[in-house]
TrEMBL record:
Membrane topology: Multi-pass membrane protein
Domain of life: Bacteria
Signal peptide segment: none
Chief location category: membrane
Stored Pfam families: BPD_transp_1
Official protein name in the record: Inner membrane component of binding-protein-dependent transport system
Gene name of the record: yurN
Membrane-spanning intervals of the chain: 68-94, 106-126, 156-178, 204-222, 264-285
Record-stated family: Belongs to the binding-protein-dependent transport system permease family.
Amino acid sequence: MTFRRTHLLPASLMLLPAVVLLAAFTHVPAVQTFVTALYSTAKGARPSKFIGLDHYLWLLDDPAFLKALWNNLIFALCTVPATILISLGMAMLVSSKIRGRGLARLAFFTPTVLPMIAVANIWLFFYTPSYGLLDQLTGLFGFGATNWLGQQETALGAVIVVAIWKEAGFFMIFYLAALTQIPPQLIEAATLEGAGPWSRFRRVIWPLVAPTTLFVLVNAIINACRMVDHVMIMTRGGPDNATMLLLLYVYETGFRFWDTGYAAAISVVLLIILALVGIGQFVLLDRKVHYR
């Protein structure tokens, strides 16, 4: 007991900088956001006043918000599973004994280190009607020019492809680290028992990388809800809000239209959604994850 008490003060002092930074840049702003959402935005000579839950009631009748919420749902449902599958597949490929796997790792990881502004501009060239790389390739098969970012039917899908291309290489690193921790004796034993590639993956590899999958799942969902930079550069939420996501709508409302109270209410809704998803993941999925 004495040993613990003598080490309590040094341990607390070492944790203090991290606690202060976390409170100053995470917890305090979150509380301020909840409070701001209860007040109207002060404009000119009109001061801010308490309006309670009116902002949240307005959200229910806001077609732009409902569209952004629906787009974000589609965005997450498309990017998260695709990112997990592609990153795991790339990790399994570069962890196998193939020629040029070092070059393959570099190629897969390169999109991750590129700035998102550069990535958006690269893909803007790919999606340029008639002259872009994508139309050049589809033109070889007789297809005409397509305005990928200018049509409601294709704009969100085009943005989703960019997000998957950017994030898959990053999550590949975590899966690669998890695969290297799997004892090769387990794979050899499963092979000797007659298990094929699919059985080895389903019975051995997938359960052992489950903790990494849970980590990737949580982070991929968070990334899907905080995506704003490349959407702003490529489409600015258009055409007709076809690519408007929640965080971009928060930015547009708070900084373009200067309605900070309404933007705070949208932020609170986003925080609640992320909290519910995170709690659900750890409550439901953590029980099925084997850490040993």
